[in-house]
């Protein structure tokens, strides 16, 4: 990705980059205190947990407002220690989002990122993106669509993900919650990748690794073979690739169940490990 994408953004003690379309004084002034913006009554909280995500209406240069999603990354425990050597999640989200934009792969437009660092560690970081209207997580359609419409959806999704992988886009958490979907006026499915801090750019992604990336998607079991056929562009999935997919999917399911039973996520949060 080219280094010049975006304009430098300085909001002492924060620094980062901002999309040229939003690089004007009134907008920069509004985002100078995102921590407070996320706690205003007018902010619609979308996610409250390890990180806080909310949507707020912010002024546009030409007048009116635009709904902007603000994601505040909490830095503590191991993540704080890793920030000594690694870039912030906000920067990774910006970099991943811009990589998608460069490749003309749909994602909510990255607006800005900025971070505050202490003498050694990252203290606070934010990532901002445009909010896409009339959109939902793909997981809900897996459940509620009738079979024929679901096959249409899975075919479109398979082609979309195959294109992403051919472009070198590797999403390390390609789960149902990180693919948003809507229909355009012609009824065509449009997909949007989010959680872009988990994106890595590769020159080439091997087939086995590509298939392994698909295991977190909650494709109903009776449609999984059809989904892989569409992804591979083949009327049949050979036995080895099918077994590879199913074994890795089962291993991932076991891992998720073990985490639930042991309450690993809650324990990590209580111990401030993540």
Annotate the secondary structure layout:
Layout: E1 7-11, E2 14-18, H1 25-30, H2 34-37, E3 44-48, E4 52-59, E5 65-73, H3 77-82, H4 89-102, E6 110-117, E7 122-130, E8 136-137, H5 138-144, H6 147-166, E9 169-171, E10 179-183, E11 189-193, E12 199-201, H7 207-213, H8 224-232, H9 239-262, H10 264-270
Antiparallel strand pairs: 1-2, 2-6, 3-4, 4-5, 5-7, 6-7, 8-10, 9-12, 10-11
**Arithmetic mean of pLDDT:** 92
Order of helices and strands: EEHHEEEHHEEEHHEEEEHHHH
Number of helices: 10
Major beta sheet summary: 7 strands, antiparallel
Kindly state the percentage of residues in helix.
25-40%
CATH architecture designation of the largest domain: Orthogonal Bundle
Look at the helices and sheets and give the structural class. Answer: alpha+beta
Rg, alpha carbons: 20 Å
Number of strands: 12
Beta strand %: 15-25%
> What is the 3D shape?
globular
Report the CATH C-level class of the largest domain.
Answer: Mainly Alpha
- For the record, the count of structural domains works out to 2
Low-confidence stretches: none
**Termini distance?**
29 Å
What name does the CATH topology of the largest domain carry? Answer: Transferase(Phosphotransferase), domain 1
Reading side by side through the largest sheet, how are the strands ordered?
1-2-6-7-5-4-3
């Amino acid at each position: 990705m080219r280094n010049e994408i975006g304009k430098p953004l300085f909001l002492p003690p924060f620094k980062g980059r901002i999309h040229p379309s939003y690089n004007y004084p009134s907008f920069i002034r509004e985002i100078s205190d995102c921590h407070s913006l996320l706690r205003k009554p007018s902010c619609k909280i979308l996610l409250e947990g390890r990180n806080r995500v909310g949507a707020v209406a912010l002024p546009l240069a030409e007048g009116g407002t635009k709904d902007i999603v603000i994601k505040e990354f909490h830095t503590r425990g191991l993540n704080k220690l890793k920030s000594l050597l690694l870039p912030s999640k906000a920067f990774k989200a910006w970099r991943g989002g811009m990589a998608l934009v460069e490749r003309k792969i749909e994602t909510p437009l990255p607006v800005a990122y900025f971070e505050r660092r202490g003498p050694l560690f990252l203290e606070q970081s934010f990532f901002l993106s445009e909010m896409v209207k009339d959109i939902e997580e793909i997981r809900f359609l897996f459940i509620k669509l009738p079979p024929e419409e679901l096959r249409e959806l899975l075919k479109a999704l398979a082609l979309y993900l195959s294109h992403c992988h051919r472009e070198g886009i590797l999403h390390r958490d390609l789960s149902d919650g990180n693919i948003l979907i809507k229909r355009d006026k012609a009824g065509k499915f449009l997909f949007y990748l989010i959680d872009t801090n988990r994106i890595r750019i590769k020159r080439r992604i091997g087939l086995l690794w590509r298939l392994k990336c698909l295991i977190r998607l909650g494709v109903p079991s009776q449609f999984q073979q059809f989904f892989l056929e569409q992804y591979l562009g083949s009327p049949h999935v050979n036995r080895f690739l099918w077994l590879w997919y199913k074994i890795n999917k089962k291993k991932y399911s076991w891992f998720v169940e073990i985490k639930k039973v042991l309450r690993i996520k809650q324990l990590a949060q209580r111990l401030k490990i993540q």
